[in-house]
Amino acid sequence: MPPSPSGNGSGPDGLNALPRPELVKRLLACLDVQRWADEVADRRPFASTAEIYQAADDAARELTREEIDSALAAHPRIGARVQGSDTSSSWSRSEQAGVDAGDAALQEALREGNEEYERRFGHVYLVCASGRSGAELLEILRSRLGNDPEEELGIVAEELRKIARLRLAKVVEG
């Protein structure tokens, strides 16, 4: 069982009280971009939950290609069985709960789609999967295969920001 990102460190007071290395560790589970985590941590003390989200949004506004690549390296393929007991792996399993592991045809279509996407764009297909079915995720994947690589990079950056915000809510609000 991964360590809980909430509890003693949740909410503005809890995050303000955390030692900086622990706060940065929790933030990196939300978005694996060191600059982003450092910038959010440096905005302490937080007077409100809204300030935490604003700090996170501001720091994620302009992700570089290298930062996007770093963040993508921490994300499993959509439909892949996520291994690991760390917080990020646990969250990934939860976020992809709508993908039916027992649907062999869907699993094969996602595997093929992921491979095609990776050949085309050179990185893992990323979408905010929370609350979406495997069929929806496959449909989105297929629709994005026709994108221009630069357009797709912008979409990926926005998806990273969405995922970071959802994960940050787990840290902030417990």
Descriptive report:
With 174 residues, this protein is mostly helical. It has a single domain, classed as UraD-like, CATH 1.10.3330.10. The protein is 64% helix and 0% strand. It is built from nine helices and no strands. Helix 2 (20-30) packs across helix 3, helix 3 (34-42) packs antiparallel against helix 4 and helix 7 (104-121) runs parallel beside helix 8 (134-144). The longest helix is centred in the last third of the chain and has 25 residues, at 149-173. The two termini are 16 Å apart.
Please summarize what this structure is.
This protein has 174 residues and is mostly helical. Helix content is 64%, strand content 0%. It has helices at residues 11-17, 20-30, 34-42, 49-60, 65-73, 87-95, 104-121, 134-144, 149-173.
